[in-house]
Protein 1
Amino acid sequence: MESTATLVQAPSVGRLFHDRVAASPDAEAYRFPVGDAWTSVTWAQAGDTVTTLAAGLLALGIESEDRVAIASSTRIEWVYADLATTCAGGATTTVYPSSRAEDIAFILADSESRIVFAEEDTQIAKLRSQRARMPALERVVTFDGTPDGEWVLGLDDLRELGAAHLVARPTAVDDAVASIGPEHLATLIYTSGTTGPPKGVQLPHRCWTYIGAGAESLGILTRDDLQYLWLPLSHSFGKMLEVVQLQIGFPTAVDGRMDKIVENLAVVRPTFMAGPPRIFEKVHAKIVQTIEEEGGTRARLFAWAFGVGDRVARGRLAGREPSVPTRVQLAVADRLVLSKIRDRLGGRIRFLISGSAALSPEVASWFHAAGMLILEGYGLTETSAGACIVRPDDPVFGRVGPPITGTEVRIAEDGEVFVRGPSVMRGYHQQPEATAEVLDPDGWFATGDVGELDDRGRLRITDRKKDLVKTSGGKYIAPQPIEGLFKALCPLGSQMLVHAEGRNYATALITLDPEALAQWARAHEVPATDYASQAADPAVHAYVQQCLDEVNSRLNRWETIKDFRILDHDLSIDRGELTPSMKVRRKVVEATYAPLLDSMYAGAT
């Protein structure tokens, strides 16, 4: 499948930013929390800040394509640091702040980063402990940490350096931006490392400016929109949203504190928000669990309202408008129930965007019944997070839409998805062999995903090629759809790992969401008070089995989960079970819990 229209791209992200500042200097660019209140800046103000910081980087000796790393949670300073690096001609290397010191050292050493923006003293301490392993690292610039006047500078110190540099060379930043071409390196983002050591993905400026132009060509966002951005900017998904904003010009509210999302949505009232499936699963699970526990009249009203909403939503997807009686029912359902769900997300959401993993069709349908369409997209770090996205006028749950304008998608004989287009990476940093394995001379990138295209060119991803498992009976099982279905149907579910490779039936390891589990335990008078004891309670086991029975009823016989174990803790990044982007490291988990998995096959023949 190919989308062949031509897009007009800026030559670089730095130029894109400068053009945005020039086009709408007095419009709101960003809003962000300061203490307990929100403040905002215009594009002109943001431009002044970025220019001064970029000049500071130039004063420190940053040259074309030099790597500048950022180890911080999502916040306005992250955005400024990234744009300043870009406008100085450098290339941003991203680091998850949750990463272990050893992992940070690997990324900074491999990328040869010369400067690091570190959020606070915890990040600085990690860097100090690994300093000998990072010979290229010259300086640390901290947002909230403690400067030492030598190796560690404060953000204000960088501003002072930049201001002095601009006095001596007023056009220094403009000259740097003018020197950047489409093939200059813009970012070096390291893969999450689910199957081995992280690889540095080289993404030149043309990747990001293409994504921006492609998003604008869809016509679904305008300058009147307001984005709420909490996603990790160290992930390509977050970077994509940052660039799309520059292209279109809408304002963005920035705050990466996950525990503030619900509170912030009520204050900010955005028109759209993006996130991984887990955030939508948690919203769905929280509301469904609360209603289930209340029971009685309210539960019946909730079920009726969502039934009406779902019937109308499905009809409209099929091109049918509801009858007059059904419209009356919908108005009542909306007033009593559905509008209150939307109000939890601020009440102004036009649509939501899901990416980075497969979204359960059940969760997507639930949101749609409530009047909020989730547009599911598809892409990898190697494709600058963007390759396909569902169109609002043609949504099909379970599919990730057709390719973005200018991108081609094809399916190999074994079902693997290949992508070609301007968003595809230059290659892996200092790994020509690994690059050749996935990127052929004609520009086709082997994604490692398995999927199919329908007759209208819409892509459906079934699983990761390496995650497919084959039972001893020769049947293939795709774990991800089963795991996604479980999390959609079980309000307590956090993680699930389906295990069946070489076995004669499928089993699963399950972890539960601590907050949801605690709420359920209180409602059902489970005496235990800590997670491990609650997870081991027979009543909890019976409830999870009930959810699993519903999952199994929707699967082929050979896919059904015959047995499961609930772990006494959730999976974690610290134990190496999850990547910094919260993806399960299957091989690590299976190796760690091999005896537990084996116990589910004792005596099996």
Protein 2
Amino acid sequence: MQVLLFALLSLSGCAGTAPVSASSQNAAGDSLAVQARRLFIEGSFSAAEGDDGRAVEKYREVLCFEPRNAAVHFALSRAFLSLSMIDSARHYSEKAVFYNPDNRFYRKLLAGISFEMRDFPEAAVQFEHIAASDPSDKQTLFYLAHAYLSAGRHEKALRTFSRVLSVDPENESALAQSLWLEFKLKQYGHAISSLQRLMEQSGETDRLMLTLGELYQRTGQPEKALKTFAKIVENRPSFFPAWIALFEVLVERGDDERFLREAKAFFAGKDIPFAGKIEMTKLFILRSEDEESYAGPAGVIASELVAAFPDVAEVYVIRGMSRLFRDEYELSSKDFRKALAIDPHNLLAREELASSYMARKEYPLIVQSVGEARKHGATLSPRLVVLEGYALFRSGLYRKAARALDGISAFDREEHTDRFFIQARLTQAMAYDRLGEEMQSIKAYEAVLDEDPENALAQNNLAYILAERGEELQRGLDLARKAVGAEPDNPVFLDTLGWLYFKTGSYAEARDILEKALAGKPEEPEIHDHLAEVYRVLGDEAKAAEFRESARKLRREMESGE
């Protein structure tokens, strides 16, 4: 639309202009100049009155007489800009600069239009021209720096902000921008100098001091960093980020003695609320999961939390979780039991205690702990239901396990319980399988697959039941293939797939898959049984007898505990 309007203006701008004869050339020249000035004045009045469309019309008529008049091109550019016709505005702005390249105003307009059109390199070119004519023009330098910044030319932007500071050393905005760019360009040494200058001008705020300390760390000056962070917490003990930074430096230096001293001061201080101290402890526990160097300090922090609040159940739970992560099962259980002694209804403590027993495979203690929760009138969580059911299953109490896991149905099916529902139904399905109640087992596996169609364990186990029953063999084969697709090297899944190939008459495929399963789990007698059947059907009785004998031998060894 803008191009069409521009074209129409171009066609109509010079309509009615007659050729001038040679004999009247001088007189006509004077007359044309007067007419051009009149039209320009009319256009200017129209622009002043807000009638930019008429202004454009008059300026275009002027160009019929004076096509190289830079001022007219400039005026046209501004009029088109007011009409939001930015492409046309740029065109005439470029013409104005072309015909009068030394005019700062023309270049400023072109630079501004280019910036608006996100042509940052062109905007930078124009601002650079303007700045070259007046190196002390800090406003233009600022615009130039932002054009470089927007164009992603960070080093040039930094140099330009330095030019601003050479003109105006107290310019905090330029100093802050320089600091940010020095950070981005990893010029940390220069960043320290810029930050110190900024602090001299605006004062030593906590945030600026914190940044200075971080810069000292990055430039390998831990002593200065430590001194800076210590100064912050001394002046403002409630400034949580400075405590974190202080502890981090001490961990990196391996200064255990001072770390303990500062940790005691942190937890004894009254300026940081209890929630902040909990947050610090959790932060260290999380860091210890990824960084070995934080394991010891996390234990120190957790113990100091307990020392500061010995009558609060939550702190024992937190320290217990820290110990559980470090495989300190006895100590973690002790903490969870202490938390429950303070608050018998602390559900998280009960869950974590059961988890600590689970880690040691102490299944009877899990059942006992859940039973104690019931005695105290506690409402079980989905997690506890799953833990109890699994503990009963692993204890060989399959009927009790199946019944206990029915308790998962009492909970609303919110997103956070979905995984517990799936775990409960999987364990329940396996319990029913051990009880020989195949239909109940199938029902539980189907419930899992309704929720999680890609659950490989449910796919495999349901496929095996179907194979044993000789029902829906094609579906069983499809399920087994999906399970193996998810875990190609799982020997149990491979055994199921091989057995389904056998059941569907694909004996060669069955043999190949079962041989692969055997390589992964040679001690599993069931795989030997399946291979014996495959080789029997393939007519290799010697091989079949060999695998039957190896299956019997493995079972005898398992029964005798060898």
